[in-house]
Amino acid sequence: MRDKPIDPVLLNDWYVLAKATDLTTGTLLLCRLLGKDLVLWRSETGHLSAWEDRCPHRSVRLSLGNVVGETLVCSYHGMAYQAVTGRCVNVPAHPGYVPPKQACVQQYRVQERYGLIYVCLGEPDRDIPRFPEWEDPAYRCTVAGPYAMRANGLRAIENFLDVAHFPFIHTNILGVLENPVIEDYTVSIDDHGVYAKDICVWQPDPYGTGEGTQVSYDYWAMRPLTAYLRKNNPGGECLTLMYSVTPVEEDQCIAWMSIAMNYAPELSESEVIAFQDMITLQDLKNLESHSPQLLPLTSSIEFSVPSDRTSLAYRKWLKQLGLTYGVLEG
Ligand code: FES
Ligand code: FE
Fold first, then answer.
1. Eight-state DSSP code of residue 162
2. What is the pTM of this model?
3. 60 lines ligand 1 (CB under 6 A)
4. Which of 61, 64, 76 has most ligand 1 atoms within 8 Å of CB, for mutation?
5. pLDDT, tens digit, for every residue of 64-87?
6. Which of 123, 153, 196, 292 has the greatest number of CB atoms lying within 10 Å of its CB?
7. Is there a contact between 33 and 119 (Cβ–Cβ < 8 Å)?
């Protein structure tokens, strides 16, 4: 368990904690983010709250309680906490008693967007990462996941940015053993992240036509734990993915994949999700086998080759951000 404070760049960012449809009116969800237990809940009028999962009276879990109207009622002594303010508004043992100021739960910022519930534990300096295709009617949009992994979240992002493993881990799906070559491509870093442009990979049937072809990927790591990919085809078919990784602990994460595609309307939502489930399962063994689990930011532990340039740029950017959580600093 980490005892150092969490880096502000992570603390002040937004993370996905649930699908919006999993948090129906009157429900409670227990979640863990950056080592902190949270309870997410929706009041009966739909107000969304993300609270520390601790009753300020005797420190039991609020997630053991119940939603009653606009309050969350603790299971232990029945005290009720109001959704908007977090203040205790009822103490059953003392009718009419006015609770003191500190009878208030710790509240966090929470927003619903793109069919997901996002939470920030700190003071957000930016909004939720934008996913423009989600708002474009030409695209059909689906959320896959959650994918819980006994793996470091930065390793999960790095795996998402890595195409050289396709022929070996996703054989005959995202690549073929006969053509593992990765040609040179360009990578750049700026204040908004890491961009890798036009990475070409041979795929046996990328558009469901039965034909193999070279496809081109653009990647953008826009936050330490959020990355975007765009797979273009000269015919105009386009697949975009937003890969959002929730850091549970330094060695545990939950990945979510938001998918927007402007082709293959005949594919059902469950088929789109089943495909991502299969790809994620294929990646999981390696992701859970990294030793060290933390991501090395120096070259002394792992060697690299030219096709690792996106990964190297990602590590360089994390170092520039001064990240200490989830990394080996050397
Ligand atoms: Fe929650 Fe007492 S511990 S009401
Ligand atoms: Fe993979």
1. -
2. 0.96
3. yes
4. 76
5. 999 999 999 999 999 999 999 999
6. 153
7. yes
